[in-house]
Amino acid sequence: MARKETITKNEILNAAFALARESGFAGVSARTLANKAGCSTQPIFRVYKNMDELGADLYGKAAAYFGEYYERFPKASETPFVNLGLSYIRFAQEEPHLFSLLFVAKERHGKSLYDLLNGSSGFVVKEINNAKFYGCKDPSGMFMRMWILIHGAACMALTRDYDLQEEDTVKLLEESYRAFLNV
Q1: Please, which of 21, 69, 162, 177 could form a disulfide with 157 given CB 3.0 to 4.6 Å?
Q2: Helix pair 9-23, 51-72: axis angle to 10 deg
Q3: What single-letter DSSP state applies at residue 121?
Q4: How far is C-alpha 111 from the geometric centre of its chain's CA atoms?
């Protein structure tokens, strides 16, 4: 009779996600994961061929988490790209390890930064369409200009060099959008 599996793939993934949130992906090893999940390393390698396979699932879970974070984030402005930018910057402040994993690390498991930002709900496409609706002649170019600013601000937040309050960030993003309309 086969021994009953006591830990599931989902439980292992959830433990890996908790570790990644606490200490980054570099802190997720078979040993630390086994300790966090309350098992030996054997169940980990029963459900995952290797740590790279686990990493791909962890990356997918982190990307889905960012998508949910953005969806729940309170909307502060009608100006295109402001809400996406504000939530992205806040995510870097609140979830620095997940932000680094998703948006700074070289390994993106076959996804581009655009794919990650667009998410399963088409966040970027909605923002581009919103910019077009409000009369922007080059909404894709506007996204690129805004994104350089937004990503830079988020990276500054990651290193704790960004200290603007939310209302100041909204004002900065809105003013930048208007300024880029004239470029």
Answers
A1: 162
A2: 70
A3: T
A4: 12
Handedness of CA 152, 154, 157, 158 (dihedral sign): negative
Residue 1 pLDDT exceeds 50: no
Rounded to whole angstroms, the Cα distance separating 126 from 70 reads 13
Q: What's the CA gap between 39 and 41, in Å, rounded?
A: 7
Q: Max Cα separation, the chain?
A: 73
d(CA 163, CA 153): 10
116: nearest Cα among 98, 104, 103, 106? 103
The tens digit of pLDDT for each residue in 125-168 reads: 999 999 999 999 999 999 999 999 999 999 999 999 999 999 99
Three-class SS state of 135: coil
pLDDT recorded at residue 4: 52
CA pair distance 87, 153, nearest whole angstrom: 12
